[in-house]
Design brief:
With about 100 residues, the chain is of the alpha+beta class. It has one domain: MTH677-like (GMP Synthetase, Chain A, domain 3, 2-Layer Sandwich), CATH 3.30.300.100. It is about 45% helix and about 25% strand. The protein has helices spanning about 15-35, 75-100, and strands at about 40-50, 60-70. Helix 1 crosses helix 2 (about 75-100). The longest helix is centred in the C-terminal third of the chain and has 25 residues, at about 75-100.
Length: about 100
């Protein structure tokens, strides 16, 4: 479950939201590669979905599929949880930068 952040959003267009979602996917993917040996990964899919509600709330949903070719002793569920938390923090930081920038 992703945490709810109360930031007061900067003005965002649909294009801004699409770019943020794509950049979030890249950031989460790189985070995963830093936590699990890349050559051990047989399947990796990261999807970040941003939805701006009519009430001005921006919802983030991060889905991760992570499978390995061989066991490296890593707890993949815990790593996916860490990467999800990282993605949420990454998005919060980007939104704060836009708000103050």
């Amino acid at each position: 479950m992703n945490p709810v952040l109360e930031l007061g959003l900067p003005s965002l267009t649909e294009e801004d939201i699409e770019v943020l979602a794509q950049d979030c996917e890249e950031a989460v993917t790189q985070r995963l590669f830093s936590l699990v040996p890349e050559k051990s990964i047989s399947d990796l899919a990261v999807s970040c979905t941003l939805d701006l509600n009519p009430d001005g709330q921006l919802d983030l949903d991060i889905e991760i599929v992570l499978e390995q070719q061989y066991d490296t002793g890593h707890d993949l569920d815990a790593i996916a949880g860490q990467a999800t938390e990282y993605g949420s923090e990454w998005l919060e930081q980007r939104l704060m930068e836009r708000k103050t920038g």
